[in-house]
Structure formats: C-alpha cells, structure tokens
C-alpha cells in the first residue's frame, strides 16, 4: 500500500456548518440560515423568519468565525497539509447581486488563508457548499434564472482574483448531483437555490424532504449550474493558469440487490443518473447520451441546452474529479425490500453491511470499487476523496477524555481501501475527512451527529461554551498522516 509522497491529507468543512456569525461583518442570509435542526429520525425543517425564538443551528454553528486560529493550529498538529473549507457566498455578496463585494467578508478569508499558510496547509476551497444567498432564492428563483449564472461567475472571479496567490485548489459546487437525488425538494434548495413560492410563503415548518419540486425546472437549473461552473473554471484558468479546479460529486455507490438482471439494469441506470451524469458533463464537457432517454421518459424537454452552452461546457472542463463517499446502497425492482436511510438517498438494505445510528451503510470495499471505477471512467483525471467520515454520538468522560474507537474502526478500512486503489493504479491525489472538528449536520441540522477528531462543546438545546477537546481519534489520525498512510 503506497500513498504518493506528496499525497494531500486533511479534513473538510463547510462555512455554513462551522462559521456561525451569520450576520456579522456584513454577511447576508444564506439558505441554511433559514433552517431549523431535526433529530435522528426527523429531517431538518424550513421555517420562514417568523419565529424569533426558534433555534437555527447555522447562526452560531461552532463559531469557527472566532475560533479559526485555534482550530487551524489543531489541524496543523494532526499534520494536515490541506484543509478543505468553503467561502460563504453571502459574506462576499450579502444579497447575491450587490455591485461591490463586502470587504469585511473578503478580509475574513484572507485571515483564514494566512493562518493556513503559517503551517504549510494548502487550502482547498469550495465556492458554493449549499450556501446560495437567500435573496437569490426569493428574488431570482435560484439557478432556474439564467441571471444567476452571471452572479455566480462574478462571485467566483472576485474570489479567484483576491486569493490568487493564497489558494491553488478550488471546487465549484459541492455535491452538484444532489439535484438528481430523490429526497423531495432538498436537492433543489441546497443545490440550486430553488423553492416553490407556496413553500417560501408558508407560515409553518416544512421538512426539507417535503419541499415541492418540479423536474423540468430542476434540470434546467442544473444545466445553468453546469454552465456557471464551466464559465468559472475557464475564468479561473485565465486568472491563474496554475489553479487546479475540480467538480464535487456526492458518490452514493449502488449495487443490484440480487443477481436478477432486472435489478442489475436498474442499478446501472441509477448509477448513471445519480452518480455519473454530472461528472460526465464536468469532466468530458458534454451531455452523456443515456440522459436523453431519461429526459424523454420523464417528460423533460432538453431544449434548454443551446449550441452556445455546449461550447461553454467543452471549454470549461475540470482539472480534477473530487467526491464525497460515506456509504453504498442497493437497488431493486422488487417491492418488498427493506429500505434504509442514507446520505441523500434511500436505498434497499444490504444484508452484508452494518450501518451507523442514522442508517448509513458502512462499506469500505465500496470505496475501493468506486475509485477503481472512476479511474477507468476518467483515465486522465486526478481523483480526490474530499469527504468521508462517520457521524456518531460521542460521550465525554468525567476526566474530559472522549473514547471514539468506532470512528477509528470506520476510517481504518476506508484508508486501507484508498491504498489498495492506488496500488490498482488509481490517480488519487488526496483525502480530506468530513468534519475533522464537530460541526452542524447538513441533513439533520444536529450537533449530536458528531464527525470530528476534535470535540466541540455545543449542543442541540443551544448550550455549551464552544470549547474544543481532542478525542482519541485525534492522535490516531495524526499517526496515519505522519506515516503517510502506513501506520493505520
Ligand atoms: C455531505 C455534505 C456535507 C456533510 C456530509 C455529512 O452530503 O456535503 O455538507 O454534512 O454530507 O452529512 P450530514 O451532515 O447530514 O451527516
């Protein structure tokens, strides 16, 4: 098992899940600022700003905005040479369509990148990690409006120019394929900034999984996002030819539940729609043929793909393919299969796998299978796993220690699987675990679903003093990085 010498090791966070300070220094509201927390069985809910007493987890999150120096120091102690974070779009353009960017927002990320530089940590920056400014949702209808392409490109160019000498690695949209997953309107809102008027104007809580959606609007908006991403990639390369700009796909690996050829075909189709479609466009620069059958069978008129857009997609292909991997799922055409929860996707339960408390099926072999498949699909494109991790309840012992062997048990075989994939010839260049420090869950809005090597004293009832503590897994990951993946 041999990780390359210059392998990127680190962790990943998103601004809305860690920063807090949701209106500080000129920031405007972004989508997650409108969402309440749920629990292990209940998804996050949308509540228009009518209830001042409600608890919105992103408003304070883990207060990274004021703790970033302490946190980056801890990451450096673990040996990170990369740190994936997102810029909160609403810090830079509070209303999405402001003439001038917000200087205080820009200055915050200067401070963060300078702190990384102090320790030789390369930032890997996501431009949009579910953080579309709320005003873009209400005023423009999110990416269903072509004007938002220009707003995004202006934002991207502002960041590229400002941080040209501080950031080399960029990602355009986090999990762009969330729009193709079937959890109600959650993908529309998080990924595309679309919410139907009836939901925006509701006077009661709406679970994210019950938001309304309209497939024609979804795929048109997703197309606009592909165009925005491609234009940003092109502009980025003009600003600094050394930039490495990637896409980001939520990879929910699927298997047929049985050897019934009908299940095999159903899994193949699902893999194409949910995992491959967006990556194929962003890596190869054109719509794959299989999607037109799906469009036809689902009454989606593809006339939104113009000749000019096709040219833009070709000119804005990505330099690397990055993805999140947490679990796998099964697909079946049978009707009586037991279903399980998952990251964005409900799927049939795999009898060979265990699952987390949230029903996410644990499958390290699936990671090797996925990387090997991507190696063959995109033979000339470097790959990076930019999210992988285990959400769990943690307990703080009386002496302040936190024993989390279950987290190490999750990571160990996943890291091993990456090593095997590298031995199989995969061009894997880096790995950032999800949530190296506890943060707010994207799916449930919980604090109790903890991912970190670093514990944060903050709880779902709004208590806690935000202090940080190392868990047992902290020293374990430090050792893994120090040995370049040998000592696991
Ligand atoms: C991915 C998101 C992350 C992150 C992760 C874990 O889909 O990109 O933002 O949160 O999933 O999901 P959750 O927070 O719901 O446990």
TrEMBL record:
<dbReference type="GO" id="GO:0005829">
    <property type="term" value="C:cytosol"/>
</dbReference>
<dbReference type="GO" id="GO:0016052">
    <property type="term" value="P:carbohydrate catabolic process"/>
</dbReference>
<dbReference type="InterPro" id="IPR017853">
    <property type="entry name" value="GH"/>
</dbReference>
<dbReference type="InterPro" id="IPR033132">
    <property type="entry name" value="GH_1_N_CS"/>
</dbReference>
<keyword id="KW-0378">Hydrolase</keyword>
<comment type="similarity">
    <text>Belongs to the glycosyl hydrolase 1 family.</text>
</comment>
<dbReference type="GO" id="GO:0008422">
    <property type="term" value="F:beta-glucosidase activity"/>
</dbReference>
<dbReference type="InterPro" id="IPR001360">
    <property type="entry name" value="Glyco_hydro_1"/>
</dbReference>
<protein>
    <submittedName>
        <fullName>6-phospho-beta-glucosidase</fullName>
    </submittedName>
</protein>
<dbReference type="Pfam" id="PF00232">
    <property type="entry name" value="Glyco_hydro_1"/>
</dbReference>
<keyword id="KW-0326">Glycosidase</keyword>
